[in-house]
Amino acid sequence: MVAAPSHRATQDTGWPHRWLSGHGQVLVVLGAIVALFVVVSFVNQRFLSPANLTTIFSGNAYIAVAAIGMTMVIITGHIDVSVGALIGVLATIAGTLAVAGWPLWMVWLAPLVVGVLVNTLAGALVAYAGIPSIVLTLGFLSILKGGLIVVTGGDWISDLPRGFFLAQMKLFGLPVPMLTALVLTLAVAWWMAHFRFGRAIYAVGSNPEAARAIGISVERTVVGVFALHGLFAGIAAVLFATQLTIIQSTVPPNLELMIITACVIGGVSILGGVGTVIGAALATILFATITSAMIFTNVSAYWLRAVIGGLILITVLADVARRRRQA
Amino acid sequence: MIPLRVTEVSKSYGGVRALRPVSFDVRAGEVHALLGENGAGKSTLIRIMSGLVAPDTGQIEVDGAARVFRSPRDAARAGIVTIHQELLLFPDLSIAENICMADDPAALGWVDRAAQLSKARALLADLDSGDVDPAQPLRTLSVAQRQRVEIARALGRQARVLIMDEPTASLADADVARLIAIVRRLRERGVAIVYVSHKLSEVRSLADRVTILRDGGFVATRPAEGMTEADMIGLMVGRSISELYPKGEPKIGAEMLRVEGLTLAPRVQDVSFSLRSGEILGLAGLVGAGRTELARLIFGLDRPGAGRIILNGTEIRVASPQAAVAQGIAYVPEDRGLQGLVRSMPVAANVTMASLSKVVRGLFLSSRAEEAAGQDAIQQLGIRAPRGPAHIAGKLSGGNQQKVVVAKWLRSMPKVLILDEPTRGVDVGAKAEIHALMGDLTRQGLAILMISSELPEVLGMSDRVLVMARGRVTGLFERAEATPERVAAAMVAEMQGAS
């Protein structure tokens, strides 16, 4: 995957320097992935087997898709800790409809629609009622998680119809999840860099008062971003629901933290205003690479969390240091 | 054609009259200064003209046609752009994006980056800021440069009326000169400029007409020519200038503080002076003369390389601010927002902060003792806090915030009080109150070292004036011999010799 130009790249003189300064984080993540590949493939050549590459690039693709929406939310200066629960609920909706015999296109579309509706409501409550997003989405998290257990009783959904398993299909010889994540990431990166609404997202996150003063509606931008975030959560849920032969009717544990972590490590400033979706997507690949590398080098998988935790601290410290230097 | 005229506009907020009917207009190629103390109604009038609030009565005319502004964007479309004191820019976006963010986009919201860059470059070059690279993020710029970016944005929006709210409040002298040159240039080009500033010397050199508001009402509109600063102040406060420095007869006593050969190279070089009880010693100098650095040494914030500090006859060592407070030295720093005041906490908590042990009962802080302390401070210093000791400090006016900071230090029973720019950023009325307070305190025997960049304040308040330049003492004048010419000459004394 190649990093596309972001909102700061220009064709001006001295662009390599400027591009580097705006994309340091993306390059660091990319470098880490390449380094891991080189080192681990020396230790164990099966690391580069097609099966393992599919696991790395496709297994976490739904997280990369969800991270697109999360990136936008964080850039506007908000956060959503309920997205993992939402993906669990949407996956269960897809599975339930599929078992009930609904046409597949409706089964795949339903999570997208419900995702948009739920998050539009969340966005409206944040923007117009002025509820801090972390508080509001903590509430949504409990409601969605609890509701899911009550409705399903914790049962797994199996006996899914043939043809339901979108995530196991291939298009142009590539796994659908990987292709989806790739296309969506590049498209959204381009859109955020070159279109007015994309700019408004950065503007609102950087200085809401200034955005308001030049006629950007902060409220509408926030609601729009949450709605888009719901759409991407819906797509992520479809990929998640269709990758295995069963759907566990529980929320994938710590999924929201994984998504937020991907954004932060990918260079999205938790203070808003800065970041690209490409960094977040690369960070999800980095997680998958680290996980796989640990398996292939016989390191206990329990170290994964500690490693990712270390990465978060380093990234945030670098962000704070950068802001201090430039302030 | 008058590009902007408001007629009999007024505004109330929840029953409180913020602005009584006022008429105001600005012509093309004119700088029209708007003067008044804080609370005089300037901000409300600006908010009405910039489309932030709708007036209750009256009307707004652009080029003779009545208009209604529903938002700042409406006003900008009519060619009226406001540059607020708090610059409304996006630190994380590039300079070009900041300048072009308000432009109408092409079809489907597509943004043409190359066009933005060249437009930004042209606008900046026009403002003598061709050295600024518009592709850089805004956060790399200084405040003065950011301000020029905001002016460039206004011009990019075809502003014909530019409303500037205290544009020089946070600029250094060199940047002020550059800004004034830019304002003059815009005037020559036919831009109508509404200029709000507390710095009357600026207004005198720049304005064509002056409008003065007081207590939410209109006082006068006059040609600037022939108006002195004293005239302006008189109209603003409704009093004459001699009443502004109510200097009573001082009761000067024994020497309280003596500093000998204090040095912290290169900012403070061999400084010696003495300060007596009941005396106000004014410390004058240009920015960077080493005045604040000297204060920091005396207060124990920095350690001197050489020299002695003698308090009340005994040499003391001030290793830390805590030690300084314990010895009886208090320091009210220049930036009360950053260093002196916890804005989110009530007056009472702020007042007791530096002397918490006095409100401890047993193991706990006594909220009753704290409230009593807050009440004392409010009465003693005349702090205007409608909710009493529980009033949140950050919601007070600038002058009253300053009084809270002073109250905090007075509770530690200092013998020497160092005030660094005690009236910066407060309006003329609050200034007079702070000056009166200083007089009261010295009559109770306190010795005050007052750092001020305002010459009239130094001359009006000080019993003696100490002048510093480039870290050295370049003059010491008794009140009677401290004329503006002499003090100013000492302020630049070493500048000609060195460099």
Describe this structure in words.
The complex is a heterodimer of chains A (327) and B (499). Chain A has 327 residues and is mostly helical. Chain A is 71% helix and 1% strand. Chain A has 13 helices and two strands; from the N terminus they run ααααααββααααααα. In chain A, strands 1-2 form a two-stranded antiparallel ribbon. The longest helix of chain A is centred in the N-terminal third of the chain and has 29 residues, at 15-43. Chain A is globular. The model of chain A is unreliable at 1-21 (pLDDT under 50). Chain B is α/β, with parallel strands linked by helices and 499 residues long. Chain B has two domains: 4-240, P-loop containing nucleotide triphosphate hydrolases (Rossmann fold), CATH 3.40.50; 255-497, Rossmann fold (3-Layer(aba) Sandwich). In chain B, a hairpin with a 2-residue loop joins strand 21 (464-469) and strand 22 (472-478). The model of chain B is unreliable at 495-499 (pLDDT under 50). The interface between A and B is medium-sized, with 32 and 31 residues.
Question: What is the fold's blueprint, element by element?
Answer:
The complex is a heterodimer of chains A (327) and B (499).
Chain A: H1 15-43, H2 50-59, H3 61-75, H4 83-99, H5 104-128, H6 133-152, E1 170-171, E2 174-175, H7 176-194, H8 196-206, H9 208-213, H10 218-241, H11 255-265, H12 277-296, H13 303-326
Antiparallel strand pairs in A: 1-2
Chain B: E1 4-13, E2 16-26, E3 31-35, H1 42-49, E4 57-62, E5 65-67, H2 72-77, E6 80-83, H3 95-100, H4 113-126, H5 143-156, E7 161-165, H6 173-188, E8 192-196, H7 200-206, E9 209-214, E10 217-223, H8 229-237, E11 255-264, E12 268-276, E13 280-284, H9 291-298, E14 306-311, E15 314-316, H10 321-327, E16 329-332, H11 336-340, H12 347-352, E17 360-361, E18 364-365, H13 367-381, H14 398-410, E19 416-420, H15 428-443, E20 447-451, H16 455-461, E21 464-469, E22 472-478, H17 484-491, H18 493-497
Parallel strand pairs in B: 3-8, 3-9, 6-7, 7-8, 13-20, 13-21, 16-19, 19-20
Antiparallel strand pairs in B: 1-2, 1-4, 4-5, 9-10, 11-12, 11-14, 14-15, 17-18, 21-22
Helix pairs in contact in B: 4-5, 14-15
